[in-house]
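From the thread on structure requests for the teaching lab: each student submitted one protein with a one-line request. Submission from student K.M.:

"Model Transcription termination/antitermination protein NusA from Sulfuriroseicoccus oceanibius, tokens only."
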Amino acid sequence: MTSDLLAVIEYFEREKGIDRETMVEAIEGALLTASRKSVGPARELRVDIDSAKGKIKALATLVVAEKVTKPYEEIALPVARRIKEDAEIGDEIDVEVTPKDFGRIAAQTARQAIMQRLRQAEKEMIYEEFKDRAGDIVQGEVRRLDRGDVVVSLGKFEGVMTSREKVPTETYNIGDILRFYVVAVENTQRGPEIVLSRSHPNFVRRLFEFEVSELADRTVEIRGVAREAGYRTKIAVFSADEKIDPVGACVGLRGARVKNIVRELNNEKVDIIHWSDNLREFVKESLKPAQIQDDKVTILEDERKIEVRVDEEELPKAVGRRGQNARLTSRLLGWDVQVLKDESQHEEFERKVLEAAQAIADELGIKLEWAVELVRGGLNSIGVIATADAEDITMMTSLGEEEAQSILETLAAKAANDAASDE
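Reply posted by the TA:
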């Protein structure tokens, strides 16, 4: 081995921390390939390196023959006896076949082999350092954008945030310093790959764990997280200690804690709700700000389905923008939550309209549909109708002047009959 090659080994051992024997093993393999090109297909060719003395040899095990017919496999007896005095025909002896200028070739090959081993070692270091960090939050700098993926510098290593792990409302620029959730560390054929995310629901969970000390000491627990990244997140919290308000702990004094998290999420809306064993109470809490009555929640156990009926004015609040409130509630509970318009009040109103119209139709002997029109127009009793004229009826209903006049004539005839009966 030349002094150049020895210097290369010593440099990488000192600066990169690669074990000398590991490097020698890698170099031997690389030099064996180089030797085959220089020496040819010699029998049982190998390379021996003495890392302490700085010596390198290419050796082949040849068979002693009386007459050489295969130059790369045999050695003539006279030549063999110069190497080993008692050599006989048929013996196997080690012959040095180190090519000329092998030192320069060795140094060049060694550098390539060591660089390759160094890259492999770095990949192994990545995997060893990050294999147990799945689920952690790391900070990194956006290094480059690669066909929709975001490549992030994590110091000595790089992570990748694929398009599916990005937040749709966020824009990423080279040089941005951001926090990321480590989804997984995968040992692929190309080497370890650190998969990062900013859209994962557990990203929000971990942010709360960093901000809220009560989560760290387990006096408050996060029982569920549902998220539509960039838009809205629902997080359910619980405390076994009745003296602790889990929602208040997560919100913080004057909202300081949750504001820090919302800032990190670029103003994504975060709902913090009380977790409850009572499914009916939990769904009511989850669908806030909509106000829901107990008797309007129907739980269908067999179908794992919950039907929630809300008043018309509460419906937009319960469903939420683009249906987010209802969808996130379903994910948080793990049940199919159906938010429906409550028709019971409307049905009750329609029943009363029909009852009043039927009474008017029976008393005046007019068509039921005419009576319905009168009631809907506010003329809901004989006494009220008696105070109106034909113009009032046509203005307050969809009836024409002829129908209005007919109703008034019928009412007048009834009044005359009633008066005659009284006499």
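TA comment: The chain has a mean pLDDT of 82. The chain has 16 helices and 15 strands.
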